[in-house]
Amino acid sequence: MNENKASHPTTIIIFGATGDLAKRKLFPAFYNLYIDGRMPKGFNILALGRADNTNEYFKNYIKENLENFSRKKITSEDWAGFQAHITYFQNQLDEESSYKNLHQKLEEFDKIYGTRGNRLFYLSIGPNFVSTISNHIKNTSLASDAKKDRIIIEKPFGHDKQSAMELNSLLAETFEEEQIYRIDHYLGKETVQNILAFRFGNSIFEPLWDHKHIESVQITVAEEVGVETRGAFYEQTGALKDMIQNHLLQILCMVAMEPPASLESGEIRDRKVDVLKSIRRISSDQVDHYAVRGQYGKGIVNGVEAKGYRQEDGIAEDSNTETFAAVKFYLDNERWQDVPFYVRTGKKMKEKHSYITIQFKPLPHSTFSESSQHLSANRLIINIQPLMDIRLQFMAKKPGLSLVLKPVEMIFDNFACQEDTPEAYETLLLDALLGDLTLFMRSDQVEEAWDVVKTIQEAWETTKDSSFPNYEAGSWGPKESIALVERQGHNWV
Ligand code: BG6
């Protein structure tokens, strides 16, 4: 996490401040940054919503939600300090007059700061409104200072490559690329950031990090939750667009990227784009060979009966949306030639568990012939959540009089170092306040990631999967995803 503290007075303008993300993630993140003394000395949060709420009503609503979602406990002293920085502001997203009023309000804050403050616009709204808001910001000159004004955009960033390119061009009419912070919250997760530290802060792993020593890489993001209240959104999205195009490909980039020359944001983002460019593009007749889709039927998750996806609110009875996706990627570059990168994600799976497995190659020759049946190849597991650790699995002698080997594990546990780690949004919001773009997606990254999934996306959108639902809620997904890795003699770990 960034050690700095933003110094210039800043007004944070949240579009969609009465929405779910704001209450669960944004306000708790700002509150925790405030308690940690990381917010700028002068700051104001302008919470924009359609409804005619009073300030008092809105602040009570935020306070109640902080009780549920804040990492740190709410004390009356901290709350008293924090709430003084919040102002509710009624705004109609599509009315120019609302933006003119907003302009006035921002100038009032600037007067109090005694200087033109920085402006951080947070678009916590549906993707359909991005162009409306961006156009109004442009027409009313709300973001007139390229050095001081920034915009944060939530995913989904477009729904395919073409729409992402259009969105990028539209934003470019109002903002320079350095002002645009496209969020992928997985990049803010402590354990995901640790991949860089682990790979490039040590001398012993990097020499082994290639096709000569690594047999395969697996990335799993399994969720226990279903679509909750987001049926309408999810029905149009599915696992490929919701998770693989962004979160899983970003993790893959962290694992596969070449060492950056420095930690400069442009350098790191260049190395990630290199990875995306090197991912082998497949043809439409190869989709079934490289990718598996699934949709959950009813089942039992964690001992509780769960409905099937098609029975959830807002979902069509004959829905063709995938709630599970597994893909095998190859990277056509010198380091990773012929190493399969298996990625999978799904909803209503057996357990919530996100992890990366680096499977090393087996020994070329076994010295321990008699006990060779016990030799397992080395494996490195990076647990992202809810476990947050790194495990190195290797062989060791079983204590005793005979020379018998057994697999053992060496564990680095994040919690043992620090029990209370910052939430991804705390890290990302602080970086945006500081103007550090490293953990945000650049326009070419987003477009390239859409290009990577394009063929699979087109095939899945245009052909109906008659096997749906093809996995039980509470399982590890459809059996075809097992076949995807077994074909190459591998197993999901
Ligand atoms: C979001 C997806 O980006 O990430 C959700 O839209 C998903 O469908 C969520 O549940 C997972 O995030 P986390 O941090 O809970 O793993």
Domain tally: 2
First-residue to last-residue Cα separation: 30 Å
The CATH C-level class name of the largest domain: Alpha Beta
- Contiguous runs where pLDDT drops below 50 for at least 5 residues: none
CATH homologous superfamily name of the largest domain?
Dihydrodipicolinate Reductase, domain 2
Q: Strand pairing plus helix content: what structural class?
A: alpha/beta
> CATH topology of the largest domain, which one?
Dihydrodipicolinate Reductase, domain 2
Question: Which percent band covers the strand fraction?
Answer: 15-25%
DSSP E strands, number: 18
Number of helices: 15
Shape: globular
Q: Whole-number average pLDDT? A: 95
**Rg estimate, integer Å:** 24 Å
Q: What strand order characterises the main sheet?
A: 8-12-13-7-14-15-16-17
Helical content stands at 25-40%
Which ligands appear in the coordinates? 6-O-phosphono-beta-D-glucopyranose
Architecture of the largest domain, CATH level 2?
A: 2-Layer Sandwich
Strand count, sense and closure of the main sheet? 8 strands, mixed
EC number: 1.1.1.49
GO molecular function: glucose-6-phosphate dehydrogenase activity; NADP binding
Binding site for NADP(+): 16-23, 50, 155
Organism: Chryseobacterium polytrichastri
Care to describe what's here?
With 493 residues, the protein is α/β, with parallel strands linked by helices. The chain folds into 2 domains: 10-154, NAD(P)-binding Rossmann-like Domain (Rossmann fold, 3-Layer(aba) Sandwich), CATH 3.40.50; 187-353 and 428-487, Dihydrodipicolinate Reductase, domain 2. Helix content is 35%, strand content 20%. The strands form 4 sheets. An 8-stranded mixed beta sheet has the order 8-12-13-7-14-15-16-17, with helices on both faces. A 6-stranded parallel beta sheet has the order 3-2-1-4-5-6. The longest helix has 20 residues, at 443-462. 6-O-phosphono-beta-D-glucopyranose (BG6) is lined by residues 155, 223, 242.
